[in-house]
Amino acid sequence: MSKTTTDDLMREFAPQLEHTGLKGKIWIALLFTLVLLGIFALYWQVSRGHIVTGMRDNVVWGVYIVNFIFFMGISYAGALISGTLHLFHAEWRKPIIRMAEFITVISLLIGPLYIMLCIGRLDRLPNLILFGRIQSPITWDVIAISTDIIGCFIFLYLAVLRDLGKLRDFSELKVPSWQKKLYKILALGYEGKPEQQIRLKRATDIMAGMVIAIAIIVYSVLAWIFSVTLQPGWHSTIFGPYFVIAAVYSGSGVLIVAMYVFRKVYHLEKHITVKHFINVGVIMLVLAAFFGYFTFSEYLTKWYGSEKNDEQLIRILFKDYYFFFIFSNYVGVLMPLIVVGFKKLRTINNITITAVVVIIALWMNRYLIVVPTLESPYLPIQDARAAWAHYSATWVEWTLTLGGVASFCLFFTLASKLIPIVQVSELKEEPKEPADIYLR
After folding, report:
1. Is residue 32 scored above 90 in pLDDT?
2. Which DSSP letter does residue 126 get?
């Protein structure tokens, strides 16, 4: 790209970094308030113990583990999508790939926190590192997640390095001096020289391949934590690929929602067009088909096997979780196939609404994996209170869930105020497409 074109793009995206309007300040204040409410709920739980949650002897995991699986899933999805699009050099990826990279890193920061909320004694957390048993899948999960966090941070840093150099050198950018100094430090002397570009490209390609492999391995390890047990509903040989497909499926929905929000807020209609929504929508459609197949296979084999405990679990799903079961396994699968599959329905609004439905459906799917299984143990409690055998999340758990979602949105918002939400250094003007009939 020529210097003039790059400067024009910098002028276009500079207001995103320089100013925060009244609506933006209200939005940040609201998110910060929700995060503070989550911190208060955490204090309430730590000071009074797990009795303030709905977790009891049977259901020792609840909404916290559901949130952990969900956030880790969308983080791996961001890594797989951004890494794959980078390796295949898809030209249309450039305006949206940074959003996928942000989704990866921010989700990795939030997801593991929910594991800590399940620990009754946080002071014993260092023992997991000091005295962890290498035979335990939990220990391997900690190792895998730590490796994934480091790898994804490196990949994100390499991806934004070019823009950091542009932000450092763009004299018209009116940001605080500390922010300019931060750009200078993080740019590491990158000036766009040919040899620097070659080295950066090689390093980015290597890291893109590594984060794809790490994401698949890590989420498979997370799935094996469930499948290596003998609990009905968990003891399955397809949990590894099932979890990976579901992760990328939910992540594609989160990416579409992020595209829609930032397109509206920062007026990116020229860069994020209907083509990008359709392309990511097609990815979501393919993943919906795979997810539907794995879900069908999972429940079919349990039903056909006619094992007593599996039959009990299926009865619980249809009796107590009928709405969750139908929404996650039917609506969440069929809606992308219908909306994206028919050309007349492929509008930006329709695809975004479908993505929201997919996100909700995949969270419900995680809930169905965790809670009903724990409510149908091999050795049920005799003559116990219903609250001890069945799970119902309390206001503490829901507040911490809301705090996690607010933290995700807050970090995403602040990141977009520090670095352009699209790749300025690589963005190219794309010809207008005759797709106005899809726009709303």
Report:
1. yes
2. H
Average pLDDT score over the chain: 82
User: Cα(418)–Cα(224) distance, rounded to whole angstroms?
Assistant: 38
Q: Which residues in 77-89 are b (16+ Cβ under 10 Å) and which e?
A: bbbbbbbbbbeee
Give the tokens for residue 91: 């030209």
Rounded CA-CA distance 404/43 in Å is: 15
Task: Kindly state the tokens that stand for 208.
Answer: 């893109």
Instruction: Compute the half-sphere exposure of residue 233: CA atoms within 13 Å on the CB side of its CA.
Output: 22
The full DSSP string for 73-115 is HHHHHHHHHHHHHHHTT-GGGTTTHHHHHHHHHHHHHHHHHHH
* Single-letter amino acid code for the residue at 175: V
pLDDT at 335: 92
Q: List, as own/partner pairs, every contact residues 130-139 make where C-beta atoms lie below 8 angstroms and the sequence separation is at least 24, other chains included.
A: 137/221, 137/224, 137/225, 137/228, 138/225
136 φ/ψ sector (left φ>0, alpha ψ -120 to 50, else beta): beta
Three-class DSSP category at 256: helix
d(C-alpha 353, C-alpha 289), whole Å:
18
| Kind plus residue range of the DSSP H or E element containing 143 | helix 137-169
- In whole angstroms, what is the distance from residue 167 CA to residue 419 CA? 9
| One-letter identity of residue 427 | L
Question: What are the angstrom distances between the C-alpha of 73 and each of 19, 97, 246, 253, 254?
Answer: 33, 17, 7, 12, 11
The number of residues in the chain equals 440
CA dihedral 301→305→306→307, nearest 10 degrees, is -100
Domain extents for the chain? Answer: 1-228+395-428, 231-376
Of 25, 117, 105, 21, which is closest to residue 67 (Cα–Cα)?
117
The string of pLDDT tens digits covering residues 324-377 is 889 988 998 999 999 998 888 889 999 999 999 999 999 999 999 888 888 776
User: In this predicted model, what pLDDT tens digit does every residue of 188-234 receive, in sequence order?
Assistant: 888 878 888 888 888 888 888 888 888 888 778 888 888 877 777 78
Token pair belonging to 46: 């730590």
Contact 186, 164 (CB under 8 A): yes
pTM, full prediction: 0.86
Residue 435 has pLDDT above 60, yes or no: no
Please state, in angstroms and rounded to a whole number, the distance separating the CA atoms of residues 140 and 270: 45
Look up residue 392 and give its amino acid: S
